[in-house]
Amino acid sequence: MTEESENKQTSIIKSSSQFGLTTLASRLTGFLRDVLFANYFGAGTSTDAFFVAFKIPNFFRRLFAEGAFTQAFVPVLQEYKLNKPELLYEFIQYIFGNLFFVLAIITLLGMYFSEELIYLFAPGFSDDPSKLTLASQMLYITFPYLLFISLTAMCSGIFNSYNRFILSGITPVFLNLSLIVFTIFSATLFVIPILSLSYGVLVAGIVQLIIQLPLMYKLGFLKIPKINFSNKGSVKVIKLMGPAIIGSAAVQVNLLIDTIVASLLVTGSISWLYFSDRLIELPLAVFGIAISIVMLPVLSEYFQKSRMNDYSETLEKSTRLSLLIAIPSMAGLIILSAPIVSSLFMYGSFESYDAHMTSLSLITYSLGLPAFIFMKILVTAFYSRQDTKTPVIYSMAGILLNIIANLAVVIVYLRHPFEGAHAFIALATSLSAWVQVILMSSKLKKINIIKDNVFFNMTSLKIIICSLAMAIVLFFSFDISVFEDDLSAYERIGSLLAYIIIGAILYYIFLRILGVRLNTFKL
Q1: Do 126 and 132 form a contact (C-beta atoms < 8 A)?
Q2: What's the pTM?
Q3: Structural contact between residues 311 and 299, judged by C-beta atoms closer than 8 angstroms
């Protein structure tokens, strides 16, 4: 490996660490936000309505902010930086103008058809007119968030290409802070308190875009947007985005399918899935999303310069490192699901039954955590090569599996209702993610991008054994059921932290015993 490559690899781990730390800050404030949600509003009709109303624009946000747009835009941006620097600023102007124009139309349509969208994404709400009305009212308020956050994502894509990761990592904190403030004052500001959350989302979107502008100005990109869909760069981004929308949306589509099916189950199912999904998002965002965002411009540059050995080595090392983190995270979340949920959420209106139900779906979501992380990394290999079509085929296979599994759950539930049906919805999403990871890794190995067997080798077997051993010791050594109501928040969180620290120490000891050296996982 050349000195330049070594410096680039060092930059990846440094940038990933910076982005991961800022993302950790956003996730911690997000946990505080969700704790307040659970405390103030519980898990019932009103929270189900809000989570659906927020999930719909958030779904489109994931496509534009963290999915199709970013994955298509950044490689083309890198191409302009390296090969057409004289056209770079004009390219940015057209992208900004075109994106704003399209999003404005989508936003207006979303607001106008808010009630129809609720019917589409939560058909079970049709049986409860008050829930349907509340959800459509909140969707009308929250939908403009899509416009602001997607433009924010475009700015973040530019910053990432210039190795400025801190601002894009810290930006989500402002969403959490806004929702925290609106939650605290919800009863004071609104007759229907839950409505305050919709306005909190809208305000957050505006603030998140505004804080990007100073750095845009500093980099010289804060110019008047232009609309021109015939611009060559814009055409290329649009062509890449078409299939990328489907490819990068697999997890989000699956989650929306989960919401549709959950709306047909007992009240509270949507909220239980939301809270468990939020817990999965912490390791996924801090590690999987962080490293994939940092890798995309690096792999795009390697591809543009035809440095395929460096390309493959970077991808393989990133995958190995993800194994070291993802497998024990999965084991820890499964074993400690009940203490985690009851420590973070079981206060006020969120009861022990809600904690138990949420822990069930957390367990089944956790089974897919490694796949969610691997998928973020592997799909970057396709997008960095400007191949957005291949992941589409695999995502469609995953979505089809998820639909079939969810239909099976609904059919069985409607005939013979049973407790915990929502957990099988989460399980279907996890299985879907694993199918996509297997297909993507096989393809990358077939075209010689992945040269070694990074998933099935002696080191990965040792990691699995160490994670399993850690989980077994925790299971037999501690009471890992839902905490009692009479325990204070300090007692619950103190016990949970003790479990986590002991688990981490055990995992490290078992790695050392089996001869796994952490320095072999450096990027």
Answers
A1: yes
A2: 0.71
A3: yes
